[in-house]
Give the backbone structure.
Amino acid sequence: MGDFIELQNVSKRFDDLVAVNNVSLSLKQGEVFSLLGPSGCGKTTLLRILAGFQMPDSGSVLLNGQDITRLPANKRAVNTVFQNYALFPHMTVWENIAFGLRMSRKPSQEIRKEVGEMIELMELGDHAHKKPHMISGGQKQRVAIARALVNKPQLLLLDEPLAALDLKLRQRMLIELDSIHDEVGITFLYITHDQGEAMSLSDRIGVMNLGRIEQIGTPAEIYEAPQSSFVAAFIGDTNFLNGRVCETVSAEYCRIDVESIGRVIAWNDKNLKPGDSVNLSVRPEKFRLFRNRPPDSEHRNLVQAKVVDLIYMGSSTKYRLECGDYILIVEQQHGRYLLDEKPITWDETIWLGWHAEDGYMLQRYEEKDEALMALGEDMT
Amino acid sequence: MSGEKNRKKVPRDPSSRWPEILLSAPSLLWLSVFFVIPTIIVGMIAFKPPSIYGGIGEGWTLDTIRSLAQPSYPQIIWRTLWLSALTTVLSILLAVPVSYWLATIPPRRRNLMLLLVILPFWTNFLIRIFAWKTILHPEGWIKNGLMALGIVGKDVSLLYNEGAILLVLVYTYLPFAILPIYAAADKFDFNLMSAALDLGANKLRAFWSIFLPGIRVGLITAVLVVFIPALGSYAIPEIVGGPNSEMIGNRIAQRTFSDRNLPHASALAAILAAVVLTPVVVMQLRQIASSHRRPSA
């Protein structure tokens, strides 16, 4: 299938705030696409532009090759699942679901049939004649989805649909959403600030920051090969080592001089030249900890570090290590915790190893440092 | 789903009702002494004969009630009812769009606008009515303006008729309609309007089938706080109305002050009280009945 929904150079500003800055994006038919970003990154504005609640200042929106930029919300084959569901409180579940069909003036027999089918699909049979305030959060969620899907939209927009649910329910709804998508096959555009939701549900993710899309890719691409420091920091935890390329070892490897740690070897897939400033991103689970210095091996970095803090989390342990001027976050899986020799613990000085390929080099841009600092504070 | 099990009605421990009764005792006492008992007294006086000195005579009689059948009364009662009803309808028709607008503008401007809504209350009610008398005066600028435009003739009076009463009634009660409707609109979740548009409703349809039901409580309150006081209007028809546009309040005042016939005035007041109280009591009873029905549904 070709591009099904296309945003071309869409911009929107509110007074002096640029909410969406020249965004181009295309969705394929039937895919689940997530827009992921911190609050205020412009993802909700983008959703409102797609839904037709807001007109972009410039750029255009195409649905199936047809320009719908100026088409009002009620004339678009796009439906929305709202953040707090926005169920009509004075109508029953059944009437809520039937609302869209009634607006399109379908014969009442057809409405009854289609609403009935939708209620069955969503397993809402016992609640059809209840008002929204009488059902639980998860049920409200399903009503909101049913109310949108019954209109057979070409695109379903989901605006942080799980934000109001508790953790257990959120995980269950995530699986349910996935199976609903398999069932109906409609293109989903999923808006969230929760990387876990985006990673587990999406075919592709667009990471947004400050009104721009920083990177579009599959969950694995976004996680393993972030194209910017922002993406690396926002998706999962990471450690940034700031340095300067000091020599190229071969076509594929280079050495970076990291202040207070020394020279480390890194995989140079960006073709950086000596003198370039870089952030070397190393994910917490890529490190390995050794109590005694292991034998040197090619393309492996070894540095000494001191355990400042550790959190035992069952399946793994999270360490905070002091290494030069850095506090590094390291996560170690332990398969045989009780059988292993004495676990590494607080105040020990240990060896920290990682392979050149485990790090990911990102060229440093000064303007983004502020956003990164804010993110860094959340990481524990 | 979870939570449903807990929704069964727990029988109340009767001893826990004492704090409730104690808390409501002062207002109950107040209402009994100053509202229920006086209303009953007014109702009783209607069955007493008048004394020649303007007081209440001995014994009981149905004469007063019979005299209410005289032809001028049904006309006055009917006029009171339709003027009040039309005032209510017009006030609400004006208040709903104003409230919608108030609820959607930025808070700083909204507070200023709300201040403007209550600004008239800073001037005495009677003075404002007299001001209308000046405005609508045959030599006033409105009359002159309308005459200049050829809309009204020289002999048409803007004052001392039902139209003038209606205008001033709407003017007076509009803020009382705006405030409860605005309070409801302020609490209304405007996401619901977006949802309705998203589902294919046009703006008018969304307004009609989502916004209006959403502010239902405000509308009902507005009906009560406009319709009931309007029924009892006395000063407005007295000042801007004429001899052929009396409302029931004027007749009660006339019976009390000019005719010195308290039983007659009481009978009229009792009718007015009945007109107001009957729908309220019926609604309360229905509400109690439906709240008893709900848990078993």
Observations:
- Residues 107 and 249 of chain B are 41 Å apart (CA to CA).
- Residues 72-296 of chain B form a domain with the MetI-like fold fold (CATH 1.10.3720.10).
- Confidence is low (pLDDT under 50) at residues 1-8 of chain B.
- Chain B has one domain: 72-296.
